[in-house]
């Protein structure tokens, strides 16, 4: 037995607690050695006090292949409270093995309750245990481990513990002397921004989240009951989307564009949010929660700056209340140095990180004990100076992120959260100005309303807690910390470089499109915002939806770009080596454009042509122009007719024509004629010489003639 304990939990066994109260992750199946699975569905009261009753209800399930007789349940309670958070973590992460129960807990016989004479395989039976808190052997204030154990007859016929479930019970009776720890709740509101440049939703995710019972609706309704307890942090894109949905929207369903039917829900959600933040202050994240690290690596720093600087105004317009910007939430809780510098340069003054991103540095002269949880605030150095780093407590984040599919899992998550905060409040040397930060690991969180309701109520009611704002957190004392390395694994979690390359190419198309428009404001801002949405950190977890959004944006850009095009085609024949090339430009768009035009030879060395600029084409009209060109060589020349932006950049896809010069065919004729004339002259000269020679041979002065 002792050897098994040493192997499983040496640190906790040394403290005399862990082996007795092993507690698995919420919702875990019974471990080896358990034949009965104990599920705790409720534990009340939320904040135990003297004079009340402790009531625990749940179910026992026979997880073995044999019937179990004489099934009963009873409570066990640790003899002492836990001494630190390391103990709590060790206990919480050990498997459920009933045989590990040791002498450091006490069985509460008064709580024993029979269940069924026989519990068959797979059968479950409910239980309710009610016991006056005064009857429990609770000593001083602190966090105790409480267990529900299932008893039954083992295969040898003896009564034994066949299953156990453990959780935590903070005990702070009235009059307990302690300094409550400040708790700053960071309450993020963000979604997956799947809206294209026309405002069309690619799916129903956001409207459904805003509807009653939806994820975002629950977050607002729960916090609205305790608005002063939470610090609202919202993505302006979500607020903008909710406002647009409230005014009517279109959504793609099964590939078809239909009119959405959740506008009333969006209006109600916005009204509830406006009412909740009226007595507090909403903090705006960068627009669409842009993946700043990935954008910086892709050379899109200006997009990060734009997402930060424009977000407060967008959020303020949506909720019609003052909004504070300058806050960013690092995906995965980490950020690299260069991205932090970029954020600070753009105006970010506060960044939310995981506590592991900045580890405390303790020294012998430091008044803060190493065993004590430091405040959830730190100085983060950047290239432009110090900014605030809000550090989310890892234990609280873990509790918020634990499984919450069943009532039993919700109870375990709640008690773990309360136990973590209670242990922080009772750490040695705790000071009255201590403040910690609670929040989820990811801003698109989905906790249950039941869990959040209980935790927010506890924040206001628990004697070891006091609700604080982010301003109070910023004012709290700080300890020195060192930055953890960003890590290749965190880099790999960013939006891929290939995807960001496609975003950058789309931005180039947009730049060329707005450059030719008479009024760029009718198109540019909508597409620029859509491209910021395409860079949202949301697509780290949903890359296929991000790719679909980017494809939709590109399709819209292509359609608009193609509305201004060259109609010319075929072959143009010059009577000489130079001439005019007639070109027709069509504008099927909704506003006038200003373009240039150039001829590009293939190869370019065979064509000489000066581009035209300042060609205005009104909407729905066509314009014809002539370009001067000179062709070198007699073979037909393939030429691209390319539209240009006012700055000379290529616009759209070129048309293709063929140029033919007749100058070289005439020159070739003259060459042939000259050659023929020269040949004829050579023939005449040759004949003439032969005739002369012949006459000279027949002359009388010739000696041969006299002999004849």
Structure overview:
It contains 21 helices and 32 strands. Strands 10, 11, 14, 15, 21 and 22 form a 6-stranded parallel beta sheet that branches. It has a 5-stranded mixed beta sheet with strand order 25-32-31-27-29. The model is unreliable at 1-32, 664-676 and 697-708 (pLDDT under 50). It is of the alpha/beta class and 708 residues long. Strand 8 and strand 9 (159-171) form a beta hairpin. The chain folds into 4 domains: 2-171, Immunoglobulins (Immunoglobulin-like), CATH 2.60.40.10; 186-393 and 480-493, no CATH class; 565-661, Immunoglobulins (Immunoglobulin-like), CATH 2.60.40; 675-708. Keywords: Membrane, Transmembrane, Transmembrane helix. The chain crosses the membrane at residues 667-688.
- Structural class, from helix and strand content? alpha/beta
- End-to-end Cα distance: 154 Å
- Name the shape in a single word: elongated
- Annotation, overall tally of beta strands: 32
Which percent bin holds the helix content? Answer: 25-40%
Return Rg in Å. 41 Å
**What is the arithmetic mean of pLDDT?**
88
Note poorly predicted spans. 1-32, 664-676, 697-708
The protein's oligomeric status is: single chain
Number of helical segments with 4 or more residues: 21
Largest sheet descriptor: 6 strands, parallel
Beta content comes to: 25-35%
Total individual domains: 4
């Amino acid at each position: 037995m002792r050897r098994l304990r040493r192997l499983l939990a040496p640190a906790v066994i040394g403290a005399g607690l862990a082996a007795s109260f092993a507690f698995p992750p919420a919702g875990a199946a019974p471990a080896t050695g358990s034949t009965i699975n104990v599920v705790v569905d409720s534990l009340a009261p939320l904040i135990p006090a003297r004079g009340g009753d402790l009531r625990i209800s749940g179910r026992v399930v026979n997880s073995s292949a044999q019937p179990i007789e004489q099934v009963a349940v009873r409570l066990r309670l640790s003899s002492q409270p836990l001494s630190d958070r390391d103990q709590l973590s060790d206990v919480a992460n050990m498997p459920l093995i009933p045989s590990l129960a040791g002498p450091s807990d006490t069985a509460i016989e008064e709580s024993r309750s029979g269940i069924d004479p026989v519990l068959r395989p797979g059968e479950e039976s409910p239980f309710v245990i009610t016991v006056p808190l005064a009857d429990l052997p609770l000593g001083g204030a602190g966090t105790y481990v409480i267990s529900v154990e299932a008893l039954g007859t083992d295969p040898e016929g003896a009564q034994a513990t066949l299953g156990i479930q453990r959780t935590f019970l903070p005990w702070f009776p009235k009059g307990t002397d302690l300094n409550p720890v400040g708790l700053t709740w960071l309450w993020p509101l963000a979604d997956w921004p799947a809206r294209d440049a026309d405002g069309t939703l690619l799916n129903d995710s956001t409207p459904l989240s805003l509807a009653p019972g939806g994820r975002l609706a629950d977050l607002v309704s729960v916090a609205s009951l305790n608005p002063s307890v939470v610090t609202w942090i919202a993505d302006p894109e979500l607020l903008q989307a909710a406002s647009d949905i409230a005014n009517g929207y279109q959504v793609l369903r099964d590939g078809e564009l239909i009119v959405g039917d959740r506008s009333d829900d969006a209006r109600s959600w916005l009204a509830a949010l406006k009412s909740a933040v009226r007595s507090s202050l909403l903090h705006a994240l960068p627009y669409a929660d842009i993946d700043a690290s990935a954008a910086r690596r892709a050379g899109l720093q200006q997009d990060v700056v734009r997402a930060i600087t424009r977000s407060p105004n967008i959020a303020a317009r949506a909720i019609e209340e003052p909004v504070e910007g300058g806050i960013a939430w690092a995906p995965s809780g980490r950020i690299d140095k260069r991205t932090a510098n970029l954020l600070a340069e753009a105006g970010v003054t506060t960044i939310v990180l995981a506590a592991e991103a900045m580890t405390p540095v303790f020294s012998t002269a430091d008044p803060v004990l190493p065993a004590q949880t430091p405040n959830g605030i730190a100085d983060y150095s950047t290239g432009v100076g110090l900014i605030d780093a809000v550090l989310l407590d890892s234990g609280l984040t873990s509790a918020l992120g634990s499984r919450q599919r069943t009532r039993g899992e919700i109870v375990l998550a709640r008690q773990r959260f309360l136990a973590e905060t209670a242990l922080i409040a009772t750490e040695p040397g705790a000071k009255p100005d201590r403040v910690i930060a609670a929040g989820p690991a990811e801003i698109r969180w989905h906790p249950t309303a039941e869990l959040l309701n209980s935790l927010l109520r506890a924040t206001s009611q628990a004697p070891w807690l006091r609700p604080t704002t982010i301003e109070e957190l910023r004012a709290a004392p700080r300890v020195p910390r060192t930055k953890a390395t960003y890590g290749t694994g965190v880099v790999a979690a960013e939006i891929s470089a290939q995807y960001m390359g496609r975003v950058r190419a789309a931005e180039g198309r947009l730049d060329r499109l707005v450059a030719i428009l008479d009024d760029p404001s009718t198109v540019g801002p909508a597409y620029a915002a859509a491209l910021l949405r395409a860079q949202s950190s949301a697509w780290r977890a949903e890359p296929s939806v991000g790719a679909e959004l980017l494809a939709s944006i590109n399709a819209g850009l292509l359609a608009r770009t193609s509305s201004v095009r060259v109609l010319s085609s075929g072959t143009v024949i010059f009577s000489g080596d130079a001439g005019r090339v007639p070109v027709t430009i069509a504008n099927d768009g909704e506003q006038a454009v200003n373009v240039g035009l150039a001829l590009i030879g293939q190869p370019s060395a065979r064509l000489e042509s000066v581009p035209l600029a300042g060609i205005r084409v009104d909407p729905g009209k066509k314009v014809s122009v002539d370009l001067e060109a000179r062709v070198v060589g007699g073979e037909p020349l393939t030429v691209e007719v390319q539209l240009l932006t006012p700055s000379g950049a290529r616009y759209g896809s070129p048309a293709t024509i063929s140029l033919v010069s007749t100058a070289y065919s005439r020159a070739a004729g003259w060459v042939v004629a000259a050659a023929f004339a020269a040949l004829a002259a050579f023939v005449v000269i040759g004949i003439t010489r032969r005739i002369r020679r012949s006459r000279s041979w027949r002359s009388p002065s010739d000696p041969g003639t006299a002999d004849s």
